[in-house]
Amino acid sequence: EMQLVESGGGSVQPGGSLRLSCIASESRIRYYPMRWYRQAPGKERELVTLITSDGDMAYLEDSVKGRFTGSRDNVKNTMYLQMNSLKPEDTAVYYCNAMEYWGKGTLVTVSS
Fold it and tell me: CB within 8 A of 62, min separation 6: which ones?
């Protein structure tokens, strides 16, 4: 079964940056779109970005446009989320998704 493992979360001050990674256990991931979701405390999980199999960022949630960039490296079976100019409202658990598979999430906390 495919495993997805996120990393790169942590605590950062407003205006700071983080880069999240999601590594897949199987190379067949290269044929499928991948997504980053996030779930803030007390809120529903929301889609942040969708990266096509070719690496195009086909969707980016409005509140992160101009600040977040999704990408992937199919040689490394890895998807990334570069997050700049972080705001307190970006605080959430960020999840990687592909097909029916989900990672366990990585926590991002933005606070002064």
Answer: none
Contact predicate 3/77, CB 8 Å: no
Cα separation, 27 vs 68, whole angstroms: 25
Structure tokens that stand for 54 in this block: 């070719």
Q: Pairing relation of β-strands 106-110 and 10-12?
A: parallel
Give the span between the Cα atoms of 8 and 25, in whole angstroms. 17
Q: For residue 86, which amino acid is it?
A: L
| C-alpha span between 80 and 92 (Å, rounded) | 16
Tell me the C-alpha distance between 10 and 73, whole Å: 22
How is residue 20 written in tokens?
């999240």
CA 33, distance to chain mean position in Å, is 13
Count of residues in the chain: 112
For the chain, 112 residues long, the average pLDDT of each consecutive 10-residue run is 97 98 97 98 97 97 98 98 98 98 98 96
Residue type at position 112 = S
